[in-house]
Records
---
Amino acid sequence: MSWSGLLKVVSGFLVAIALLVGGGYLATQYLIAQFIAPPPKPIFPNDKPSQSTKPTATTQATSAPSPKPSPSASATPSPKPSTSYKARITLGEGLNVREQPTVEANRVGGVEYDEEVTLLEESQDKEWQRVRVESSGLEGWIRSGHTEKISEQDPQN
C-alpha cells in the first residue's frame, strides 16, 4: 500500500467519525430542545363559560351605570370588619399570606399551624379570607377552609 492510499483511508475514516459525532451532537441538541419546551396549556371545558360570562358581565355593566347604588352596595360590605372574629389556623403546614385573593398574587408572608389570626373579610366567591396575623400584625389573604373560629370571640357576631 502506498502513502497516498494510506492517507485516503485515514482521511476517510476521520471524515466518517466527524460525521457520526456531528450527527449525534445535532440529534442530541434537537431532543433536548424538545424536552425543555413547556407543554401547551391545557384547555378545560369550564374555561369557556368564564369567557362567556365576561360578555354577560359587560352587559350588566352597561345596565349598571343607570342604577348608581351598585357602588354603594359594594361599599356596604365594607362593614365586614365589624363582623371580624378571631380564628386559629388548622392546616398542618401553615398557609401563605398573599397581597390579593389569587394564587398568582405576591406572597407577603406566612402563618403557622395553630396560630391566631383575626378574620377581617371574605372574598365574594368565598374562596379567600383576609386576615390579620395577631403575632406580627401582617395583613393579607389566605385560602378559605383552613381556619377555625375561636369560641371566646362568639359575642362579636
---
Amino acid sequence: MGILTKYGSKAVFLLSVLWALTSSPFVNARTTDVRYSVLCYHDIVDESRPLNRPIAIPKLNEMSEHSKPRQYFSQTIELSTLITHFNWLKANGYTPVSFQQILDAQQGKFNLPNKAVLLTFDDGYESFYNLVYPLLKQYRYPAVQALVTSWIDAANNSSITYGDVQLPRSGFLTWTQLKEMQSSGLVEIASHTHNQHRSVVSNSSGTKQAALLSPAFTHNHYETESEYKKRILDDLMTSSASILKNTGKTPRIIVWPYGQFNDVNVALANQAGFTHHFTLEEEQHNLPETKRVGRLLIDEETSLESIQEYLTENTWQLPTQRVVHVDLDYLYDANPAQLNKNLDVLIERIHQLGISTVYLQAYADPDGNGVASALYFPNRHMPMRADLLNRVAWQLATRSEVKVYAWMPMLAFDMGKGYEYVTDTRTLRPSQNAYLRLSPYSKKNQKIIKEIYQDLGLYAKFDGVLFHDDGFLTDFEGPIKQGQRTDATMNIEAQSKAQTLIDFSHELAKIAGQYQRGGVAKFKTARNIYASVIMDENASKWFAQDLDSFIKAYDYTAIMAMPYMESEHSITKNQANQWVAQLADIVLKKTNSNKVVFELQAKNWRNQEPIDNTQMVQWMQILDKKGIQNFGYYPDNFIENQPDSDTIHPFFSLKNQGR
C-alpha cells in the first residue's frame, strides 16, 4: 500500500499544492560550509479517524470523546500536513539525517549532504508512536523525540498537568514504546527536563515565567541563586537517570521547554552530562560541531513557503528600531489599584504605537537628579522601591510585543557613606554640576555594582541593557597627569578613561545577560552618548566618550538628540530643527546609521513643558528623509498621552512597514 493511499485523499490534494511551490524562486541553500537545519514538531492528529483520546480539556473526570469537541494546542498539526512536509522534503532534495550522523560528521566519519535536515518531536505524545513512527519507517527518516520524563514516569491512570489543563496519562508514550523505537535505530531519545516544562510565579505580583528561566517566588520568598541552580541541576540529573534506567542509554540532548533557557541552564546541563542543547532559534543553520542547535517551530499555520524560507536561510526580520524610553517613576504609585491602571495604560499605548523597543527604567529616581536612590527589583545592596521591573518588562514583551532594555546607571548609585565617589581633582570633592557617581577605579565599588547587575539579571527578564548617560569622566575626573597638560596628554587620558568605562560596561552586560533568554549571545547592549561629543571634536576629552568607540563596543548607541537641552541659551523651533538636521548629517558622515538610535526629547526641561507634537513629527521627518530609521524619544508621559499617540503614529509606527 502506498503512503498517500494509506493516509487518505486529503494528503493527495495537499501534495498537489506542494508541487506548485517547488518552482518558486527562493535562494538556494548555501553549500560553502555544509550545515544542517532542524524542524521542531509536537503533537500529531489524524482527522480522518476517531480520536482515541482527549487532546486538552479542563478536568480529567470530564473526559468524554462523545461530549467534548476536539481541542488542539497551537503546535498540534494534522497527519496529512506532516505527510505533506515529508513529501516536500523528498521532492526538493532534502535528506533527513540522524543525530548520530551529525556527530559522525563532526568527527570526520560522515559527510553531511548539502540539504541535511534533522526532524525533532517534543513532549512525548503517544501520537509519535501511533502516527509518526510508522511514517518514519515508511520513509526511512530518523528523528529525535524529547521527553518530559515525569510525564512518562507517571502512573497509567493518572493525569498530566500541562499549563492550566489536565491531560490523561494515556496521551503520552510509554517506556516500552520508546525502547522499541530506540532499538529501531530511527529514534534518538532526548530530555525535555523532568519537571520544568511549566511556569513558576516569579515575583510578588504573580507574574508567571518559564521555570528554567526564572527563580521562583513562593511563600513570600525569592528563590536564591543557589536554590535556583540546585532545582534545575537536580531536575536535569533526574531526567537523565530516568532515560538511562528505562532505555539503557544516557541522553545526549537537552531540549529546552518553550525554547527558553539561559547560560546558567547550559552550564548546569553540561554538568548533568548533556553534550548538546536544542533551542527554538531559527536565525541560521547549524554546523556539525555546534553544541547550541537552533530549530524552526512548526505549527498547523506554518506554510511550506515559511519552511522553505528557513531551509534556504531566506528568513527576514525588520531591522528598524523605534524606541520609547519609559520611566517607571511615572508608573509607580503607592496605591496598587492606581498602579495597575497606570500599567494598563502603558501596555495599551505601547501596543498601539507599534514600535520595536522600550528602554525601561530599572532604578528609582523620584527626585529626578539622575542618580539611583533605590531599585525596582530585588537586590542585596539598595532599597527596593517596588518589585516592578520584571512585571512591567514581561507585560511589555508578551502583551505589547516589544523588546525591552533595562535602563540602568553604570556608576550613578547613591550608596551613602563609606564608598569612594568620582571627585574633581581641583576640589577633591564630587562635582556639583554632574551626577554623583561611584568611582570605577575602586574594587569595592566594582564588586557592589557587579552584584547589583547580577541581581538585576537574576530577578528580571528582558532583552538588553541601556547604560545611562552617567558613564562619563570629565577632564578633571579620574586618573590625570598632575601639572601642565597638553591636548595630546588630555586625549590620551580621555581614551584610557573611555576604555575603562567600556570594559566595565561589558562586564556588567555579561553578568546580567547570563540569566536572560538565550544568554549573553542574544543579549543586546545600548549606551547613551551626549550629542555634544559628536558635534564638537573637543568634547571627547571633556567626557571620556566618543562615537567611534561606542559603535564598536555596543549593539546600539543611543544619541541624546535633544536640542533644547544641549543649547546654552533659548532657541527657536526652527533653530532646533536645524540642530537635529546638523546632528544627523554629522553622524551619517561618521558611521553606519544602523547602529545608532536618535533619542529625541519629548520634554523641554528648561521650561518643564512638553515638546509640541508638530515639532516632534518634524524631527522624525527630518531623520526619515536623511535615511535614518532608528529613532525614538524620551520621556514618554503615557498618563497624559504626551507625545500624542495619534499625531506621531503615522511617522513613528512600524506596523505599516512591509518587507
---
Amino acid sequence: MNRQELSKKVIGIVNRVLQEKQYVSSIDILLGLGYLSPSILDDWRRGRFSYLEQRLQANLNKLSFAIQCFHQWAKQTGLLPRETAYVQKACSSTIHLKFSKSGQDTIERRYRTHYISPKLTQQKQQRLMEKVEKSTEPVVYIIVSESKCTQCKKDLPKGSFLMMDENNPYCMACTPYKDLVFLPAGDALITRRAKKYSDKSLIVVKFSRARKRYERQGLLVTDEALRRVQDHSMVASID
C-alpha cells in the first residue's frame, strides 16, 4: 500500500468510526488498518507488556505517516481535539500506559489525542470523555509456571493466583484483595449475580499455551456475595 492509498484508508476509517461513536482515536486507526488486533490491545490495556508499538504489525515509518494523516484530516474537518489518559489499575497503584518505547511526551500525546464531533453538546462531550478515560480493572492470573512474590518473597507454585503491579508479581496475600474468594466460570447467571452482590470483584484469567492467549477462568468476589448466590441457587432448586 503506497502513501496515497494509506491516506485514503485512514480518512475512510476516521469518517466511519466518527459516525459510529461520535469520536475517533489513534487506537481506532491502528485497529482499522490491521496494525493492531483486539487481543493485543486488551493485553496492553491490562499491562501485559510495556509499550504498544512493540506489538504493532507495521514499521515505524508507515505507522508515523498513518497517525500524521489522522491528525491532519481531523483538524481539517473541524473535529475537536481532546487529550486522554490511558491508565490501568494495578493491585496497589494506577499505571499510565505507554505507546512508545521512549515514552517521549510529544509522541505519547499524539497517540493519546482523541477527536470529538463538534455536533455534541458540552455535556455529552464530557460524558463521552469520562467513558473513554475509564481505567482498565486489575486482573488476577492463574500462573502456568512457578513464580515468587515481590513483597513477601513467597514461592508461588504453578496454579497459584497472583497479580501484577508495574511488571512485578504479588501473591494475593500481599494485595488489597486477599479476602476475595474464587467463583469458577461456567454459569453465566450465577456469575452476573455474584458480581452484582460483590462490592469489588476481579476477573481471573489463565494463559492457554495451545491458543496462545489469556482465557477467562472466573471471578474473585466477596465471601458474602458468594454465599448470597449459593443461597439463592438453593432456594431456586427447591422451588
---
Amino acid sequence: MTEIHLSDEDRDFIEEQVKAGIYKDVDEVVAAGLRLLGSKEGKLVELQRLIQEGIDDVEAGRVHHYASGEDLLNDIKRMSAERKHKTGTGH
C-alpha cells in the first residue's frame, strides 16, 4: 500500500471524522476526499470550456451590446419567460 504523509492538522481532522462516525475508517475519509477532488476538477474543466466558448463568441462577433444594465435585465427576463413558456414550467 502507498504510504502518505499528513500534517498533524490533517491527521486530526481525519480522526475526528472517523470518531464522529461520519466515516468508517481512514480509507473512507481519503476516498471521499479524492472523489470530491475529482468532482471539483471536472467542474473546473467545464468552467474553463465555458469561458473559452465565451471568448470564442466574442472574437467571432457573436455578442449583443446593451445601452444599459436595465436593458440587459429586461432581455434576461424576456428570455426566461420564453424558456418557461416553451418548457411549460411557468409558475
